[in-house]
Design brief:
alpha+beta, Arc Repressor Mutant, subunit A, eight-stranded antiparallel sheet, aminopeptidase, metal-binding, cytoplasm, Methionine aminopeptidase 2
């Protein structure tokens, strides 16, 4: 989920990561994902469950007896045990479709693989070592890293299913509910009891934005269902959190090769913002350093300039007309805080004079949006979601008792995470609209609208979450698809 800039009007800004690979479904090669299994150790086919010293001999003997003496009870007994053991091991290694096997069953050791690790090329530091350690030690903490890597693995397995299964003709509600059910199943947490949603779950409302709707659209109860068409370009943006640490990652799907260059432009721009560039710069004393895009001690303005340069090098032909791919200038990437999808730092997609530096310990959602329209978004009709302020009060006292009760439920289930009406239905609420409106009008809840470019235009998004650790930059949400 992104955030807007304050250019001419208050907006949320977004960032999208990508990688270089083409795909019929929005730049993601369908089915190219590999499941990550915790312990993939399987015994040999004839292994006996008894002594380990003479496994081979006993296995061979058992096989011989089963062929020459079919009446031997002992041999048939062993054979049955061996078959069931092998079947059990194979089942544990394969994720279902849609994903319903909890991750802890696939990763029995409880440890999850790192994302893409990128070494830093500069030797400069942002802070004195003692201050750096004091302020940012969480990013080297094994529990913190495992939480983030687990959330990333849930994202990878869920989006693999989306890329393989989503087809034109499905409704956006079907797709959104399928994503959310998969995330909850993989986390083994339905989030139905108070407090469970703060342990793990969805990081923000699932975004399924079509064509000129650039971002922040989710299907809500009571709306007319939107059916996905073959000519649509759909941005799929969802977040997963474990103990409040949010993986924010997005990709774009299309079913018509007409839009391949649009998707390629945005994917390239996101990867450009993430990766290390091979360009050397000369500094005082004649020393040369390799310029990085995202990294410790890097100015955000440099990252923005690189993103714009990459995206604007593309154009796309749509029905006989050529369009330049424009970066959306009033959306941005953003840093991520604990239980807060938007921090204070933003990464615009166009050149700017922002001298703010990325620092060790920052967590960024690096994303880009490209459009064939004006490259400038405005609020559209409807509501995407709601969110409490960063420091919500313990309780509120409003004229509507329903609003006071609703506030307690929101605080207990979502805290400062952004949520939507569909999530309120999931925890068993109904008839809450008057309470929601009361909380919004009193400034207790913020509401967020869909973000639109001009009708008839098309837009794309790619996004990754990166951790600026002391030892390396970790693109934690990176997968084989993008």
């Amino acid at each position: 989920m992104g955030s807007k800039t304050l250019e001419n009007e208050d907006r949320r800004e977004y960032v999208v990561p990508s990688s270089s690979g083409s795909c019929s479904a929005g730049g993601e090669p369908r089915g190219s994902h590999l499941l990550r299994d915790g312990d993939g150790c399987m015994g040999s086919q004839g292994a006996d469950e008894g002594d380990n010293d003479d496994d081979d001999d006993e296995s061979h003997a058992a096989a011989t007896v089963s062929l020459t003496c079919p009446t031997s009870g002992e041999a048939s007994k062993k054979k049955k045990r061996k078959r069931s053991k092998k079947k059990k091991a194979q089942t544990a290694l394969k994720q279902s479709s849609p994903p319903r096997i909890p991750l802890h069953q696939l990763f029995s050791c409880g440890e999850y693989r790192p994302g893409e690790l990128c070494d830093y090329e500069t030797t400069s530091t942002v802070k004195a070592p003692e201050l750096r350690y004091q302020g940012q030690r969480a990013l080297e903490d094994p529990t913190f890293l495992n939480n983030y890597r687990k959330a990333a693995e849930v994202h990878r397995q869920t989006r693999k299913w989306v890329q393989e299964s989503v087809k034109p003709g499905q409704t956006l509600t079907e797709i959104a509910v399928g994503i959310e059910e998969s995330v909850r199943a993989l986390l083994d947490n339905a989030g139905l009891e108070a407090g469970q949603g703060l342990q793990s779950g969805l990081g923000f409302p699932t975004g399924l934005s079509l064509n000129h709707c650039v971002a922040h659209y989710t299907p809500n109860p009571g709306q007319k269902d939107v059916v996905l068409q073959r000519q649509d370009v759909m941005k799929v943006d969802f977040g997963v959190h474990v103990n409040g640490w949010i993986v924010d990652s997005a990709f774009t799907m299309s079913f018509d090769p007409t839009y391949d260059n649009l998707l390629a432009a945005v994917k390239d721009a996101t990867n450009t913002g993430i990766k290390v560039r091979g360009e050397s710069i000369r500094i005082a004393g004649g020393m040369e350093l390799t310029r990085q895009n995202a990294g410790i001690d890097v100015r955000i303005s440099d990252v923005s300039a690189a993103i714009q340069e990459a995206m604007e090098s593309y154009e796309v032909d749509i029905r006989g007309k050529t369009y330049p791919v424009k970066p959306v200038r009033n959306l941005c990437g953003h840093d991520i805080k604990h239980y807060r999808i938007h921090g204070e730092k933003t990464i615009p997609f166009v050149k700017n004079s922002n001298q703010t530096k990325m620092e060790e310990g920052d967590v960024f959602a690096v994303e880009t949006f490209g459009s064939t329209g004006r490259g400038f978004i405005r609020d559209g009709p409807g509501i995407y979601g709601y969110g409490l302020s960063h420091s919500p009060p313990e309780r509120v006292s409003l004229p509507w008792s329903s609003a006071n009760k609703l506030y307690k439920t929101i605080k207990a289930n979502f805290g400062t995470l952004v949520f939507c009406r569909r999530y309120l239905n999931h925890v068993g609420l109904d008839r809450y609209l008057a309470g929601i409106n009361c909380l919004v009008s009193n400034g207790i809840l913020d509401d967020y609208a869909p973000l639109m470019d001009v009708p008839g235009s098309y837009s794309a998004q790619f996004e990754h979450t990166i951790l600026l650790r002391e030892s390396a930059k970790e693109v934690v949400s990176r997968g084989d698809d993008y």
